[in-house]
């Protein structure tokens, strides 16, 4: 039996909430898939109690189910004709507001994660 839209959203929110660093007010997960959907690049950030932005890593026991569930959500969009005849999104930015128990999805259709510009510490 396939999951409902709400079940998928809740599962994604629970995974990100469970994995959030201590003191996080908001977590932001960026996931970008290759066109073949066989590789996923990701970044995880959070805002602490002082509204400072930091990054964090997730363990594979959270990352793998998160990627699987986001993939299921994408398939849900395709199966239920929610793409309006357009190609399905290839990534998303998921924001979980921990303080207000809210989740927001921003779907992306083009590559958007540049791993080197945001986190590059060396001079070129």
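Q: What amino acid sequence fits the structure above?
A:
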């Amino acid at each position: 039996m396939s999951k409902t839209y709400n079940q998928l959203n809740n599962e994604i929110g629970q995974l990100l909430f469970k994995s959030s660093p201590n003191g996080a007010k908001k977590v932001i997960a960026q996931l970008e898939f290759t066109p073949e959907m066989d590789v996923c690049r990701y970044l995880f950030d959070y805002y602490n109690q002082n509204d400072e932005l930091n990054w964090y890593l997730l363990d594979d026991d959270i990352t793998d189910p998160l990627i699987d569930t986001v993939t299921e959500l994408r398939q849900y969009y395709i199966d239920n004709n929610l793409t309006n005849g357009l190609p399905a999104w290839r990534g998303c930015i998921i924001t979980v507001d921990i303080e207000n128990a809210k989740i927001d999805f921003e779907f992306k259709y083009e590559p958007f994660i540049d791993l080197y510009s945001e986190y590059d510490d060396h001079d070129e």
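Q: And what stands out in the fold?
A: Residues 60-79 form the longest helix (20 residues).
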